[in-house]
Design goal:
- The protein is an alpha/beta fold.
- Helices cover 43% and strands 17% of the residues.
- Strands 3-2-1-4-5-6-7 form a seven-stranded parallel beta sheet, with helices on both faces. A six-stranded parallel beta sheet has the order 10-9-8-11-12-13, sandwiched between helices.
- Helix 7 links the parallel strand 6 and strand 7.
- It is globular, with a radius of gyration of 23 Å.
Length: 416
Amino acid sequence: MEKRKLYIFTQQYPYERGEETFIEPELKALVQSNKFDITIITNGRKGKNKIFTVDECVKCRLIPLVSLVKRPFLAVKYGFQFLFSKKTRAERKAILECSKCWGKFVDSLLLFLYAQMFYYDISRLSIDLNDTILYTYWYNIQTLAIALHKQEWKDIRLISRIHGYDLYDERAPHGRQPFRTFIKENLDKLFFVGKTGLDYYAQKEGNSYKYVLNYLGTINRDQYEAILNSQNSYEGCLIVSCSNIIPLKRINLIIEAMSLITEFDIKWIHFGDGSDREKIEQLAKEKFSNKESITYCFMGQTKNEEIMNYYKNNNVDCFITTTQSEGCPVSIQEAMSYGIPIVGTAVAEIPLMIQENGVLLSDNPQIKEITDAIIQVYSLPDEKKKQMRNQSRKLWEKYFDGNKNHEEFIQYLLRL
């Protein structure tokens, strides 16, 4: 049977970090299915070498990122297209109906310019995109670029996956996601990583047969029962968090909450890096400097397999997130697969992930609420803790087992 041609558009994977946790498990399943001829098309710096190794059967094409400043004539050309093209008429009209429309106008203009630049670069690669599935992993520039020019190729199927920053209006610079209606009209399928996101999008754009709920899921091949009997234990409360260190994740709340706990010793491990790292490390130093009962470690950007090994080898008392906004966090899914209780805010898909396996915080929790949640989870009798751990694992098996979810995704692609 001839393989289907599948082009996967990423932001920078496999040449830069940031997407590997989401993409690699799904990519591996697509390769192992042996049903697709896969090419990854991605942005990145010219001459950049791959950071991540992909299967030898997967081809990679790198499109160097070029600033609009270095392409003034194209920027002017596409700027006029945005102002006068029929394809952008509905977008321009929608912006004018918004309050504070100037910022939204700029957001749409910039997205259009970068999308057209991306198409310009794609067209120069001499890639035959006819009779293919074009899969944009993020609902942004690349998706718009293909949607704008979809009619130029024969028998293509355009699909995309939508997460959090590319979905919610409040995550956009000026409170509106540009070109949402236009892209939807030119898509064949839109895959949501969570039901909350799907419901939100449907409320904005109306229901459609194009929408598919498909949790990303994670892969865990370790024997769960065997792990529980071989983990290292910490004399106190072992807390883990895993996220980018950026304002959106509100890691400062975790630090503030732990600083109020005097009932038991705490060891806190944070996996992840980001723009706020220096500020957060300084806060931790200030809050914990006189507290011998609290030890902590910022692990920085860490390979996914190393994080999973940490969960495998250590009896983590709780995974905590105080994020302000989310899609369906893979970091929580990974922790659940090892039976770790979860403390998290009631945003996006997190309420689905906390059902008798931890404590669901309010969406904008006070410090004391977080402190009480940590104390509650740690202070449970051993039998209750065991039940909570098993429930975390059961929820993972029900919703976030990557083997099942990836197979569902593959079957959708084969039906296109």
